[in-house]
Design a protein that fits this description.
The protein has 383 residues and is of the alpha+beta class. It contains 16 helices and six strands. Helices cover 46% and strands 6% of the residues. The radius of gyration is 46 Å and the shape is elongated.
Length: 383
């Protein structure tokens, strides 16, 4: 076989193999065309654009709702107050929002500047300890205020006497000592005072925390605005200067208007009388204090004060201490010493005198209430 024949055989075999492939391949091979030549690459030069520099965007402050941020202001971040708010929410059903708003408005009274107080001019007369104390409350203007208060509210005072057995002069005496008949209810907001003392480390912070709790309950019950009420440096309120716990225990709606309001004279009169009645005032004991006589100018033989109790017969027999006027009271008496410039006054205090001192645990306080009440009573009667 020559070269030409071998080439024909080889070509025949290749054609047989190609015919054995799939029809798809055959179809594809038939459609294969030669691609056109590539298009020459053309470079396009873009102009350089300089970016415009503008001012940074103004930051708009985001106002977060009060309920989300808690207490703001002077007491922000105070953990004691946060715990207290949770307690009031859990045990007394106050809302967090309400308390956050209230305490955010409260101010730290420790940062407040007290106004300068001028003292009354001295009369030049030497005075004892008792005289100096008495003169703060029992003076002409206050006596005249007491007469005006009694005349204006005489029917209410008489009603309180009928209801509770407390004569008007002792209710009048209390209100005159506490607020000068409404002249001085106090110059600080109660919420500020109680929050500062309860949450900022006062030595009686437990007491004031309890008073703060009672104050919030009190204002809710009475429908009063807690952020507006004014009181003393100790958080006492109204004509009678009740603390919050005393309000809840002793305050009464004496004018029956549906609100127990200690800034209302009628409610205050009934509340003071009720306080005395609840603390043991005895209607049958008409005398509160009677001046006593003893030998000498200074009394040092026995302990004195509202807490003391002595048998009248023993004082008479053993110590020669007797009343200057008739004492109808038969029970044990307290010995009350009032130091004056050159001598000591000595008084017998009855059971009802000791009841007065439950309002303020002070012998001088009890005697100031008694003497102011008596002075107003005498002035009202014209002597």
């Amino acid at each position: 076989m020559n070269l030409t024949q071998r080439s024909l055989v080889t070509l025949s075999l290749l054609m047989i193999t190609a015919c054995s492939t799939k029809e798809v391949k055959k179809h594809i091979d038939k459609n294969i065309t030669t691609p056109p030549p590539p298009t020459p690459i053309q470079l396009v030069v873009q102009p350089i654009i300089t970016p415009t520099i503008s001012a940074p965007p103004v930051e708009v402050p985001i106002t977060v709702p009060q309920t989300e941020v808690g207490v703001q202001g002077d007491f922000a971040g105070n953990y004691k107050l946060m715990d207290f708010i949770d307690y009031m929410h859990n045990y007394h059903e106050f809302s967090h929002k309400e308390l956050y708003t209230l305490f955010s408005q409260a101010q730290d009274t420790n940062q407040m500047i007290e106004p300068y107080r001028t003292s009354r001019p001295s009369s030049g007369v030497r005075k004892g300890k008792w005289d100096r104390y008495r003169d703060m409350f029992v003076y002409e203007r206050n006596i005249n205020r007491g007469v005006a208060f009694w005349q204006e509210h005489e029917s209410t005072l008489n009603q309180a006497y009928q209801t509770y057995g407390v004569p008007p002069e002792y209710v009048v005496g209390i209100i005159g000592i506490e607020t000068a008949y409404g002249v001085n209810f106090g110059k600080k907001k109660v919420i500020d005072v109680l929050t500062s003392k309860a949450m900022l480390g006062d030595r009686r912070e437990n007491f004031y925390t309890k008073q703060l709790e009672k104050f919030l309950i009190m204002t809710r019950q009475a429908g009063l605005t807690a952020s507006e009420l004014m009181g003393s440096n100790a958080g006492a309120m109204g004509y009678g200067q009740f603390i919050a716990s005393s309000y809840l225990n002793f305050a009464v709606d004496f004018n029956n208007d549906g609100v127990t309001d200690l800034w209302n004279a009628q409610d205050a009169i009934g509340s003071v009388a009720n306080y005395f009645a609840q603390n043991g005032w005895r209607r049958s004991i008409s005398q509160v204090a009677v001046r006593a006589k003893y030998r000498g100018n200074r009394f040092k033989r026995l302990n004195t004060g509202y807490k003391t109790k002595y048998s009248q017969s023993k004082l008479r027999r053993k110590y020669k201490i007797t009343p200057r006027t008739k004492l109808r009271y038969k029970g044990s008496v307290s010995l009350i010493k009032l130091p004056k410039a050159s001598y000591d006054e000595l008084w017998f205090g009855t059971h009802n005198f000791r009841v007065i001192t439950t309002y303020n645990h002070s012998t001088f306080y009890g005697m100031a209430v008694y003497q102011l009440g008596q002075a107003v009573k005498k002035r009202k009667r014209g002597y």
